[in-house]
Amino acid sequence: MTETRKLRVVAAVLVACLLAAGAGYWFLRSENRTAKLLVLYGNIDIREIAVAFNDNGPVTRMLVQEGDRLRKGDLIAGIDDTRYAATLAQAAHQVQNQRQILARLVNGSRPEEIAQAKAAMQSLEATYQNAKVNFERVAALAPTTIASRSQLDSARAQRDSSQQSYEAAKQVYVLAVKGPREEDIAAARAAVQSAEAALAFAQQQFNDTKLYAPADGIVEDRILEPGDMASPNTPVYTIALTDPLWVRAYVPETELGRVVLGMRADITTDSAAGRTYRGWIGYLSPTAEFTPKTVESPELRTRLVYQLRVYVCDPRNDLRLGMPATITLDLSQPAPAAGWTAASGCGAADAARK
User: Strand 264-268 vs strand 324-330: parallel, antiparallel, or unpaired?
Assistant: First the structure.
């Protein structure tokens, strides 16, 4: 073998060794990187509510359509409020009436009423004194034949009657000065409170003729139409809740110790290839369960898993409820900052990534 051929062989062996070393390095690096990643499979959790009126009545307005996006507090439907408006007006007038009665009792007798009662008392007192003097005069003449027995009896009856009238007027005057009893004022005050409670109830019934969105979401089903009879047991809309949005997945028991609350996550879907959504673990179940049949996992389905909830930031509204999703967790990331909570929101998630 010539010297040139020997050099070529040695060079080829060296190149082969270098290639083998490089391939081994990249293989080990890839293995190490893979060991630091945990991939889970789940679905965007389906959460929906059926909203209904709290009172009965014919539907007069349906203000949103299927697919409309709602904000909490948006007016979405209404029923006929004629009866409820009349009940509300009646309750309001009853409150005014009871308040006037209470005010009259609290303020007591007016000076004019007291003066009137006093004048009536004094007038009857004068009548009584006159009847008393007349009776005494007739009684003095009774032993003689000047005053008859019948005249004496008539004078006595006139005196007694005028005395009773005077005593009654005197009591009216005393009551006018003292004013109403505390018990009467307390009863009137209780009547006002009862009327105000009835007014509040009538107001709430009137308010319930309008239906508002109880949370942010998207209208899934429009069940009733104008003219239908609504009731508390009849849903008007079905609303899909989209805030917050999360992926329900399951982590194997063997990986449980490497997953913590607040850990950042990347979420991908089949419908948006190449797009990654940021998120974080906001819930980790404290109890184990058998793997649900709907979870796609290469592990045996009899192994115990723990449910977790990965909150997702979806600023473009791409994700749909029930959509399959893949979660990738970098297990080498640092622990979440102190004070991290599930409700930190997407803004906090962005800050934590910095």
Answer: antiparallel
275 and 346 co-located in one domain: yes
Q: Is 297 found in the same domain as 217?
A: no
Mean pLDDT, 10 residues at a time, over the chain (354 residues)?
59 59 49 67 90 94 94 95 95 94 76 74 79 75 67 77 80 68 82 94 95 93 95 94 88 84 89 86 82 54 77 86 90 73 56 47
Q: Are residues 198 and 101 in the same domain?
A: yes
AA identity, residue 197: A
The whole-angstrom separation of Cα 334 and Cα 58 is 58
Question: How many whole angstroms separate alpha carbon 23 and alpha carbon 29?
Answer: 10
Residues 105 and 185 occupy one common structural domain: yes
Integer Cα distance of 77 and 235 in angstroms: 12
pTM comes to 0.63
Q: Domain residues for 70?
A: 48-80+209-240
How many structural domains are present in the chain? 3
Q: What's the Cα-to-Cα distance from 268 to each of 284, 308, 342, 353, rounded to whole Å?
A: 20, 17, 20, 18
